[in-house]
Design brief:
Low-confidence stretches: none
Structural class: alpha+beta
Shape: elongated
Radius of gyration: 15 Å
Largest sheet: 5 strands, mixed
Distance between the termini: 6 Å
Number of helices: 3
Strand content: 35-45%
Amino acid sequence: MTAIALQDALITALLGDGTVSALVGSRVYDNAPDKVPYPYITLGPYQEITDDAECIEASEAYQQIDVWTQEAGSQRGCKELSRAVKKALHGADLALSEGAVVLVEVESWSVQADPEEFVSHGIVNVKVLTED
């Protein structure tokens, strides 16, 4: 499994989820373009840890999904979108272009105020176990 294959599968899963797409349309990015309208989703930090066993090449991948909303002092929309991302990915059957997904688990999510006025930032932490 490559990090790119997992990234593509996560984006496809998010865009394919009715609740997520109803909230953000097609605004799910690796890196958001300038002046993208709110709300939107970006991929944050990624880490992969080798977890090989006898005769099995495996990895634990950790992908942060960032949720961005802009509301007049409210975090409600960010909480709604973060929860929708969790529901779309937790236990998802992701199809990879190489390798196989064993488990997708949303370990946690949180919402915080962003330094930019009226912007809320949701962080959804996803763990994916894979085999090559």
